[in-house]
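Exercise (ungraded).
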Amino acid sequence: MESVAAQIIPTDETPGAREAGCLYFIDRALTTFDRAQQPVYARGLETLQAKTRELVPNAGKFSGLSPAQQIQVLKAIENTPFFAQVRLHTITGFVANPEYGGNRDKVGWNLIGFEDKFHYSSPFGYYDGESQLSAGSRKG
Amino acid sequence: MANFKPNTQVDFVVIGSGIAGGIMAKELSSAGFDVVILEQGDFLHEKDFRYDQLKRTSTSSLLNDDAPTTFRQTDKEKAVHSTAFRYGRCVGGGTVHYSGSSWRHHESDFIERSRYGPIAGTGFADWPLTYAELEPYYTKVEWEIGYSGLGGVSPFESPRSKPYPLPPMPNKSSGVLMERASRKLGYHAVPVPVAMLSQAYRGRSACIHCGFCSGYGCKVGAKSSSLAAVIPIVEKSSRCELRPNSYVREISVDKSGRVTGAVYFDANKQEVFQKAKAVVLCANGLESPRLLLLSKSSLFPNGLANTSGVVGKYFMPGCNASAHGIFEHELNEFKSVTTTRAIEDFYNADPKRGYYGGGRIDARGNTGTISFALGGLPPDTPPWGSGYKKALQENFNRTLTVQAFCTALPQETNNITLDPDVKDAWELPAMRVTYKDHPDDMKNKAFFRDRALELVQAAGAIKSWADPVREERAMGHTMGTCRMGSDPKTSVVDRFNRAHDVPNLFVVDGSSFVTSARNHPTCTISALSFRAADNIIRTAKNGSIKAPAAS
């Protein structure tokens, strides 16, 4: 499962689903608020195995494939309800509040630039900062 | 807070504690009347609110998520379950979780039928009151509830008797880009008025710009919700009792057709009948008509106050159109209020466009990381893999949305009815929504989508795209279902929100709206409530409320 999540948000020079612990988010989802999705995962993992054997005849498990082979297998099941659900859970877990198990150490939030703070003051971004600066210089 | 016995006849039962019910209860109890507020939802406080982005997008105790509403587009179809009809179900109602953008209607909104003539297939009509009559109450809303804004800068604003009590919120990058685009295109960007405190006001704290407005309860009480601005006053009153977790199933009438009180289920699903001299129904544009339809009697076989047959009809939701763009530098739109600048250059309908419709356009960004990651990226982004990750990383803080709030025409065939098959958790017939956009509404959304895209591009986006124009299937801002009018044959309430059929029943919320204006109903709902309350107090004091005989 972790290998699938790791292809959805891969690890490169920055952290991906693996470092964010998206697997733990999926675990939590399937045992609490998204219990109803368990059969989708159970059937989906069988499909994944079957597709792995079909496309890479001598391979064992999906997790043992090369990255390119993994992408090839996932592309073949990309339109299944299983893949849609894993994608939804992986992406959600990556940027959800860390207490749900994913976004560990806020790696997802840090990657996209969301600050976990509850108090800000103006300027908030580049353009309003720039506009304040130019308004200030006009006054002076 | 007062504590009344159900078999004691109180002066008023107010059903719903959103902004209409909150204001109504405050005004009536302050005038010396005994009031019981019945609220379906929980009584949550600032300490209960959590900034949990997952709960926001899946389930939340602020909303009626578990209500088994059904939806269909026409009465030829079988309605199917839908979770898309959400409203605030907690003390404070929808104002607890809304973004706080809160605009007055314009003078023209009340007289559009006179101005543009009839529109085939619709109940397009003038309101039975004018902007001038409502203006003092708009001012009262802004000052008593606590609004921040800047009057007198928009060339399209209708006359106001007083400025906003507080200065506008600090501008955000989305607002600066809106100003830039408007200058280029010859439009007029103006500060968005918000029911939010830009400075400390009347013992309440100023906004700390945390960014968790839309979809969340405010943890510092700076959002001027019914919960923060009104409920604390009624809680202190010895004349008012607020009963949360009270789900009303019927407004009862006696043989003479006068309302006698309300029957509700308490938190333990036990039935209670609260006696009252009069009832004010403030349950929102969906639940108010539903409760009237549920309240059938031999005198009112088609539902209470429904001899016109109009209860539930002419349902109007908020219609939207939008476009997006990616910019070179960070916008950081997850900070502070949802939106700070808007244009009203296309507010009025224009016969030259060949259809009826208008709207208001604001600029905003992404406030939620989950909603952005799942739905905010450009349509040509790979759905997963390294291309997806790169887009997510680069664009979360640099994506602007320009959003149009558009007209919805009142059509008799768009309505709220009782589902014949589905029951809710209290074994009552579920709400069934029938809605299909008028062809003019669709043309209008396409027009506004194009304007939104032009604005994004004029602001200097390095990449831009527009959302497809869609028929509405998910709806907030529910309006029109107990419409106001002078003729009892074609409307449910009169110009003071009194039911034509029942002298001691009043309906005050978005359901009173005759036309949709340009979405953003809260300021007008609030003003209608202050105005109706004034009139109810006068009526009660001169003895003409026509209460049932006390038994």
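Further reading is listed at the end of the chapter. For now, observe: Chain A has a mean pLDDT of 93. The radius of gyration of chain A is 20 Å.
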